Amino acid sequence: MRGLVALPGELKRDAKLLMAMATIGSLIGGVLGCILQLYLKSIGFDARIIGLLSMVNIVSMAVFSIPFGVLGDRYGRRNMMIVGGAAFDFSFILLIATRSLPLLSLSFLLLGLGNASFNVLLFPLYASYFDEGKLEEAFGLMNFMSLTASSLGSLLGLIPPTLTKLRGLTLSYAYWILLTTSALLLVPVSIALILVRPDEPVGGSKMRLRSRNVILRFAMMSAILGLGAGLFINLIPYYLSVKFKVESDAVGVVLFATNVASAFANLFAAHLSQSLGVFRGILATLGLVAPLYLGVILSPLFPLAAALYVIRTSLMSVYATLILALLMRMTEDEERATANSVTSLIDSLLRGVGSAIGGGLMALNLDLPGLISVTLYASAIPAFYLLFREQG
Asked: Half-sphere exposure (CA, 13 Å, Cβ side) for 282?
């Protein structure tokens, strides 16, 4: 095992707290990823509304990404994560308290705000506790723990159908019970974050970025893959449920297997980087993703589609680890949160637009948004080569 994976060595206190927070948060995220769309479907919302709510979440995340990045660099990344965490807590309260579309829209907006703070600030803060030569290992370990927890959260999707069969509950009520129970886990997440020592602000007041040309290249990759993911991947629980007539038990098992495989793939990312280099490692993962992705859409059988999706997503998890390490390495430390916020902004905006378009297209033809998405993923291969060939 040690020949295939690399670990970053002893972790500092605050790095451990951040990892604990991210791990528990990922458990909650696994539950949401598995059942949220199915919960909305069970209370009467169709693909169009689910796609629009997903767009609200993702566009909100996009809008708040740059402000959180700049404010995090200027006033402390941990402090701004606490602000985002409070928004996330309130979004969960609304989610379990109402079925009103306007209030659910507000819930998804606040969910996006909270996600923006963590997506933008967590990894730059975590990276500050490691030497640059250990970033792939550090990110690989963090992603391994997060994805393992997320996989357990996905597996909890087995609970609602079981409650329906054994207790006679409606499916919507069973989903609501699991959402409400998951909300209790927000307490240890908040405690772990508060216990992290406030970091020293590292800058963020300058309007001109020294790394702006580098950031632009990463933003272009985020745009291509973000739009592709928004069109189809963000709606995969709904897609699998409708196409193969399955509910959260089957979808949860798929997401569980996906996250477990992705977790171990993240540990392998550092070994791949050492063997091929980051540039060739990213090209290799992207080159394998597109044909596997196409197989998911064309598959006539649920087990085959599920297996291909697991492999496809594991490879994209390796890509995410390598591209993040490359971004952190190619930008100045005082600009890392801002750089991450710009790429997150682009990714989120395109995911949001893609989700709205994908939901509409899926209502007309279930497979159409997936086919468009595959084309975008295939185009990312030459795009990455042209943008980063000096890294080869």
From this structure: 27
Distance CA 111, CA 135 (A): 28
CA distance 24 to 16: 12
Strands (E), 79-189: none
Q: What is the pLDDT of residues 128-144, one digit of tens each?
A: 888 777 777 788 788 88
- Round to whole Å and give the CA distance between 294 and 376: 12
Element (H, E) at 15: helix 13-42
139: closest CA among 324, 283, 275?
324
Which tokens belong to 51? Answer: 């796609």
Q: Which CATH number fits domain 13-199+211-391: 2.60.40.10, 1.20.1250.20, 3.30.930.10, 3.20.20.70?
A: 1.20.1250.20
Residue type at 14 in one-letter notation: D
pLDDT of residue 8: 57
- Single pTM value for the model: 0.69
CA distance linking residue 353 with residue 342, whole number of Å: 17
Query: Residues in the chain, how many?
Result: 392
